């Protein structure tokens, strides 16, 4: 027998907060995470759901000791109200942005090395230009779930962005095989990928043995591929750690260009086997990703525009040691 009380007359003007809370619970599958997203206590979120269930006379959320899931009625209600809630959110955001400075909170996810070396200076300028926008930057090399973890935008290093998100390409990127001059004074530079088996190689930490794949296109337009199993004194899941190890002369490292550009520009690292392209280690481009929606908030639009402007030159080694081409200063987001 259901314990849900009979319905009371539901006033639409009182349901916005409850429906919004239900939609967030549907995304995150947790009262605790929903409370964090909404800036409320867990008790307040539970009370909103209880109020909604009482007004509708239906159980909307099934709670167990291990999980939270929506009932069939709850899933149907979330599905039927998703578009109207999104339209209301977009309309409120557009109305807010139309008056004065763009404002709001923006949660951003980015890889550690890319965020520390290239996004941090950009975000400093962006926050100065738009003081009413608050950015929460989460640096992690894991692939976060934007919708479930409440991120508005992610900067990703990948070759094929997911179809479920809106993707804006910011720039190309490539992997580089590098060594320090000190290491090369003690060891002959490899002349082919097969030579790497005789070198100390600093590999990115992934399951199984470290295997590096290279390819090049010969004069006959045929692609030649070589796979070599490598070994060395250190494997790590962060490109900055591998870069520092390579700088110390510990071995050869395969690094994304955004992590190695400054050291390469200063001559502290030397590129090896430039005719061969490392394949399958890192992404071919940097993308800005956001969950699909019918409208985009003004803060997200401005930040994506600023990212496109700042990273348009890519990460090729430049004489100024920044790893990017010099650009005239401009207000972030202005074209």
Automatic annotation (TrEMBL):
<dbReference type="InterPro" id="IPR000847">
    <property type="entry name" value="LysR_HTH_N"/>
</dbReference>
<dbReference type="Pfam" id="PF00126">
    <property type="entry name" value="HTH_1"/>
</dbReference>
<keyword id="KW-0804">Transcription</keyword>
<dbReference type="InterPro" id="IPR036388">
    <property type="entry name" value="WH-like_DNA-bd_sf"/>
</dbReference>
<comment type="similarity">
    <text>Belongs to the LysR transcriptional regulatory family.</text>
</comment>
<keyword id="KW-0805">Transcription regulation</keyword>
<dbReference type="Pfam" id="PF03466">
    <property type="entry name" value="LysR_substrate"/>
</dbReference>
<dbReference type="GO" id="GO:0043565">
    <property type="term" value="F:sequence-specific DNA binding"/>
</dbReference>
<feature type="domain" description="HTH lysR-type">
    <location>
        <begin position="18"/>
        <end position="71"/>
    </location>
</feature>
<protein>
    <submittedName>
        <fullName>LysR family transcriptional regulator</fullName>
    </submittedName>
</protein>
<keyword id="KW-0238">DNA-binding</keyword>
<dbReference type="GO" id="GO:0006351">
    <property type="term" value="P:DNA-templated transcription"/>
</dbReference>
<dbReference type="InterPro" id="IPR058163">
    <property type="entry name" value="LysR-type_TF_proteobact-type"/>
</dbReference>
<dbReference type="GO" id="GO:0003700">
    <property type="term" value="F:DNA-binding transcription factor activity"/>
</dbReference>
<dbReference type="InterPro" id="IPR005119">
    <property type="entry name" value="LysR_subst-bd"/>
</dbReference>
<dbReference type="InterPro" id="IPR036390">
    <property type="entry name" value="WH_DNA-bd_sf"/>
</dbReference>
């Amino acid at each position: 027998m259901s314990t849900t009380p009979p319905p009371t007359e539901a006033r639409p003007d009182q349901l916005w907060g409850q429906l919004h809370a239900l939609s967030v619970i549907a995304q995150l599958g947790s009262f605790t995470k929903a409370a964090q997203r909404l800036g409320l206590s867990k008790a307040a979120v539970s009370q909103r759901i209880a109020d909604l269930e009482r007004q509708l006379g239906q159980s909307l959320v099934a709670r167990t000791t291990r999980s939270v899931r929506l009932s069939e009625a709850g899933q149907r209600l979330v599905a039927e109200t998703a578009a109207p809630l999104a339209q209301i959110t977009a309309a409120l955001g557009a109305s807010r942005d139309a008056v004065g400075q763009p404002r709001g909170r923006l949660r951003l996810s980015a890889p550690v090395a890319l965020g520390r070396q290239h996004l941090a200076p950009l975000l400093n300028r962006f926050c100065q230009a738009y003081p009413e926008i608050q950015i929460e930057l989460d640096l992690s090399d894991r692939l976060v779930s934007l919708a479930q973890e409440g991120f508005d935008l992610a900067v990703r290093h990948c070759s094929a962005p997911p179809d479920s998100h809106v993707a804006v390409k910011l720039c190309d990127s490539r992997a580089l095989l590098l060594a320090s001059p000190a290491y090369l004074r003690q060891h002959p530079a490899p002349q082919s990928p097969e030579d790497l088996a005789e070198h100390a190689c600093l590999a990115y930490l992934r399951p199984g043995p470290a295997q590096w794949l290279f390819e090049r296109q010969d004069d006959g337009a045929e692609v030649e591929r070589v796979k070599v199993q490598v070994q060395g004194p250190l494997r790590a899941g962060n490109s900055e750690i591998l870069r520092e190890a390579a700088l110390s002369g510990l071995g050869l490292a395969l690094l994304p260009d955004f992590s190695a550009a400054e050291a390469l520009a200063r001559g502290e690292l030397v590129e090896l086997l430039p005719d061969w392209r490392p394949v399958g280690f890192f992404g071919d481009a940097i993308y800005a990703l956001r969950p699909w929606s019918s409208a985009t908030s003004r803060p997200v639009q401005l930040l994506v525009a600023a990212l496109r402007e700042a990273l348009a030159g890519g990460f090729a080694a430049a004489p100024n040691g920044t790893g990017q081409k010099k650009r005239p200063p401009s207000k972030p987001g202005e074209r």
